[in-house]
Amino acid sequence: MAVHARVAQRHPTTGESQFARDVLAGLTARPKWLAPKYFYDRAGAQLFEEITALPEYYPTRCELAILRDNAAAIARFVPDGAALIEFGSGSSKKARLLLAAASQVAAYVPVDISSEMLAAEADELRRDHPRLMVLPLETDFTKPFRLPAAVAAMPRAGFFPGSTIGNFEPHEACSFLRHAGRILGKGATLIIGVDLVKDAKLLNAAYDDAAGVTAKFNLNLLTRINRELDGTFDLDSFSHEAFYNSERRRIEMHLASKKRQKARVCGRVIDFRAGETIHTENSYKYTLESFGALARGSGWTPVAVWTDADRYFSVQALVAQDE
Ligand code: AVJ
Fold this sequence. Notes:
The chain is α/β, with parallel strands linked by helices. The protein has helices spanning 18-27, 42-52, 58-75, 93-101, 115-128, 170-184, 200-207, 213-228, 288-296; strands at residues 32-33, 83-87, 107-112, 133-134, 137-138, 156-160, 189-195, 238-245, 250-257, 261-265, 268-272, 277-284, 300-307, 313-320. Strands 2, 3, 4, 5, 6, 7, 13 and 14 form an eight-stranded mixed sheet that branches. The protein has a four-stranded mixed sheet with strand order 1-12-9-8. The longest helix has 18 residues, at 58-75. The structure holds N,N,N-trimethyl-histidine.
């Protein structure tokens, strides 16, 4: 298992990394865009941890409270002897809450694109749960992957917290849910965190915090491009923009060019008009109804929903529909 491999995926003939190809494609498209999964280099992951502790950023706090307050009830949806597969595990902090209440889980498979935390967290989890099989997988969970052979005969439960589903366009969210259904198999359960539609003021504040941490997180993408792709972005001439698009029920994050300028990336020149933006992230918000409809249309039946008292965030249990 390639848990410790840290080699970037390169194109077999051009030698370009996937990151390089995606960045060049995004910056030469109109409108310009970059995929939010690239926020999470070491500095970006650190900044995201800081975001989760901000007073304005309610999602992490709400979701942790929901998981803490309802752990036993949520655990009842996880079958006996199950393998718990987490999509995008990061620090496994949320899985720990679930695992503490779900002693019937036989194996935990954290799946993450970055091996940094994966190996260290796996060791700690093995220490804390000596009878739990911990089988980390370093892979892009949005692409098809094989589960470890050791869990082949176990019933499966998926875990997808953090409202990461909100980063997908609704049609991509549907594809992801179908993909998760194929990986998890017949009769599987999926425990998923979904951020909810709410007052625009609260949403805007959560993505444009007073301390400027989210701005740093957004701009770090340019720092990463400068470092890894020979970029020449001048960070002072781009600004962080985040706003709730109520028609599309999503937060949009952009990096706006403060002036007309050029930047080089991998030897290519990218032109910016004054005010032109790079669209760096969407974070879709759902109502219980709209997410229920999405789930049902994507091969899953919603069976339980837990929310915080303010109904800011939800954790939902879905069961795979029979084919
Ligand atoms: C990790 C995708 C859930 O959309 O709220 C936080 C990322 N971006 N602040 C989100 C994020 C800006 C976050 N997700």
